[in-house]
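Hey,
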Amino acid sequence: MNNLYRPLNLSRRTLLRGSAIAGAGLAGLPFSGAFASGAAAAVAAPSIIACPTWGARAPGPLDVLTRNPDKILIHHTAGPNSTDYSAAHAHAVARSIQNHHMDVNGWTDSGQHFTVSRGGHVLEARHHSLPRLQAGSGMVFGSHCPDQNDQAIGIENEGTYTTAAPTAAQYNSLVQLCAYICAQYGLPATAIFGHRDYRATACPGDRFYGMIPQLRADVAARMGGGDRVGLYRPGTGTFFLEGLGSARLGDAGLVPIAGDWNRDGVDSIGVYKKDNQTFYLKNSNTSGVADGAFRFGNEGDIPLVGDWDGDGYDTIAVYRPDNQTFYLKNRNDNSGEADGAFRFGSKGDIPLAGNWDGDQYDTIGVYRPDNQTFYLKNRNDNSGEADGAFRFGNKGDLPVVGNWDGDAYDTIGVYRPGTQSFYLKNRNDNSGEADIVIRFGERDDLPISGRWR
């Protein structure tokens, strides 16, 4: 998930997208309810191997419910991490699971609704689950998690993920399956959880469980829900977030930030008060008091936000212009100690953070106003060398960063105060062309971005 705040109040995620909005004369609107929520995009159905195809046994009695599920639970089989990625192996795994569940556990069928093999094959596991999913109506009562079997779709992933990660094929198939389930049943990507969230268990393994926030983000992106743009109006201390309307936090004239503070897969607002070097964070995009306040940094520091350790939580940081050093924290607390300090950039640079290389970590970067160039690093270290330098924008532009097209990468953009326009790129390169141009807001508004839903 990445989010970040950009100095001068930029943040790093995305939004209003495309020619339908660009140049639509939104400048000057107050934005209270000015944004309309868009319908979820259609998601292509993954190839799902039905029970008869993999040789499933006839089940015992099964209850087909008229109610729809309200969540997805991710499991792992806790079996071997096989390197046989064939369909035949996937069929054999499905038969083995069903036999164990019926003959050892005494269940009437496979407990979970679907299975994803290490080779990326998706299988219907419990009879009648596939036609209910295709219809987007009703579900089969499962046997994968007590108290959730009539509410949650269970997905079993072949393998053990305590320290190892799923294969790329398996993960990609899981993303597509979850996106399809969410689209068919009208669920948000934030309705994806690990088995251990509802049961005292190690499932789906520490490594896989740590990937749940990224899974939510990738599913949202597959559903057409990438980062979204917003604005902060310093005169009133009000945020205007696409699709959500407005929210006010704190006094006027603070520095806006945004991040996933509670690991729910959604970014929410925050502010930084320069006078007392305090971050005020909310767990929802609503007006009211902060849910947490954390003091960090020195006078003159610039705030930013990122998931520095890949644990799914966005945490606070500051950039010190005097020594061009980033001070990063892995927890939102009042310890006052940085977990890492990295020097990068030159005097006058604006700090950035983003997931530039598609891994699970946010890393540092800077924007140099003098030459309108982004300098990005793929590691938080003191090498002093940029992994990429990309020129984009005009003098006076403010940098913004976000996952504009819903892939795995954060990419650059600028906000032009003079025209109240965002110019966003889907690739970090030197083409100089914007992929998305959006005009809205008022002259003194500050850009911010995030995954708001």
